[in-house]
Amino acid sequence: MATPTVTDNGQTVAGSGRQARPVIVIDRVVKTYAMGDLAVHALRGVSMVVEQGDFIAIMGASGSGKTTLMNIIGCLDAPTRGRYLLDGVNVSTLVESQIATVRNRKIGFVFQSFNLIPRTTTVANVELPMVYAGIRKPERRRRALAALEMVGLGDRLSHVPSELSGGQQQRVAVARAIATEPALILADEPTGNLDSQSTREVMEMFSALNAQGRTVVLITHEDEVADYAKRVVRLMDGEIVSDRSQRPRSGTAIRHRHDPDSSSGDLP
């Protein structure tokens, strides 16, 4: 696979043409960890471009480098060498306080374990990242309500996590991720703790959000989950071994719980 050519502000260049700024540019990134006297090469010159509105699944076996790549994309780790640009920002040149600001404002995280705060209402869980971002309370509440409505939980505002099914908790996590209006939704094995029905509902929700123009990068080891993506990137031994576009599995529109065809598995 040819290495993408990028300008200093992250634009991809092909011949004399020029595209709009990508959401992600990974440019010849190397990550090496020291383990005693040994050097572990987790990433070996990885290059990848993610355009606005793309939906990418990153796959690979244990030790392939996919978790390391996710941590770099999520600004949770830094490359040993190479450049990483997120929405035009060269993350590699930032200090930790600046990276924390970029992480909060430009990335919406969705984790396998939901990471909701117990005994805290659904709407308060969704508002939390906006508190850290310094968004005023009326605007936080407006965005949280809109996000919960978007994922079909507009009638679950006062519920705490223990009163929600696993699928509903993950939908709250997605609402929390999109409420900050990030450039990127980064999901790490978001269906790992869900049954097949909840997995289908959550992945259809990601498809619907992507259809609205949101950029999604998903880490998964399940082919059935990767089928929902527009593009599948596979890693092996710290290198990208395949990067292919595909026709994604069709999703359905996000349904509210009270819609006639919604799942009967949700808790009352």
Protein model, in words:
By secondary structure, the chain is α/β, with parallel strands linked by helices. It has a domain of 180 residues: 3-Layer(aba) Sandwich (Rossmann fold), CATH 3.40.50.300. Helix content is 29%, strand content 26%. It has seven helices and twelve strands. Strands 8-9-10-5-11-12 form a six-stranded mixed β-sheet, sandwiched between helices. A four-stranded antiparallel β-sheet has the order 4-3-6-7, with helices on one face. Strands 1-2 form a two-stranded antiparallel sheet. A hairpin with a 2-residue loop joins strand 6 and strand 7. The longest helix has 16 residues. It is globular, with a radius of gyration of 19 Å. The N terminus and C terminus are likely disordered.
Search tags:
268 residues; Rossmann fold; six-stranded mixed sheet; four-stranded antiparallel sheet; 7 helices; globular; disordered C terminus
Number of helices: 7
The CATH class of the domain at 52-75 and 90-245 is identified as Alpha Beta
Give a quick account of the main beta sheet: strands, pairing sense, barrel closure: 6 strands, mixed
> What percent of the residues sit in helical stretches (DSSP H or I)?
25-40%
Oligomer: single chain
CATH-level-2 architecture of the domain at 52-75 and 90-245: 3-Layer(aba) Sandwich
Please tell me how large the radius of gyration is: 19 Å
Strand content: 25-35%
Output the structural class. alpha/beta
Shape: globular
Order of helices and strands: EEEEEHEEHEHHHEHEHEE
